[in-house]
What does this fold into?
Amino acid sequence: MVRIPESDLIINADGSIYHLCLKPDQLADTIIVVGDPDRVAEISWYFEKVELTVKNREFVSHTGYFHGKRLTVLSTGIGTDNIDIVLNELDALVNINLSTRMVKQEFKSLNIIRIGTSGSIQADIPVNTFALSSYGVSLDNLLHYYTENHPVYEVEMQNALMDHINWSHALATPRIIKGSEILIKKLEKGTTKGITATAPGFYGPQGRVLRLALSDPELNEKIRSFRYNGERIINFEMETSALYGLGALLGHNVATVCALIANRATNTYSPDHRPVIKNLVELVLERLTTN
It folds into this structure.
């Protein structure tokens, strides 16, 4: 076994992991991740007991109990680059001995659920409803820095998508990864299930035009019209493919469910999406703590 050097696995002076500032015993086996740091307290407000609060930069963690089940709520900030930090450090907390810097012989699998906000790209999926990500498709290049040609990648679907779009060789090849069937089954009632496209930005990569022209003005329509074995791409956001990809590569169960606060096909936006996010939080908490 190889000892991981200090420059690769950075441990703070108090024994916590570098960015998240968490110690192994402070992390629950079931973790809810959100983008917005303020949303962590909005979720832990429902807990019967909060045993821990930690904050470092955009990473805020609360660990406590809901219906007797221990949960951690953690903010990731925006984007797949932050997910790279979060997933690797969560895995290190449970699968690497931080004292010896050696990978543990016994593997632990975490349950990680993202509660997010998103925009639908299909005209028949209205705002103020919930989208559950059956698959995540990366429009960025993060996963290309990790193992290539891994069984977690849906290669035939990837090739079909690139053919359908006439994918530009100037862009990274999309990776498509399936979400956890166990978690999706728990969460699917009352949601619309479909593929989630994860973009590396909010404006141009999602087809928004302010002052800059797009390299492919038809890209959103091409994405919207893609079909594969009954699946279609239903929404855009900025984290899911990294969660699904790194989660699958590391052996964790991951699922994303988003409140749809906009519809890009109909150009509509929810004037007050706070109630729908509240309803989604309550739904996820109940589903995670009941059999």
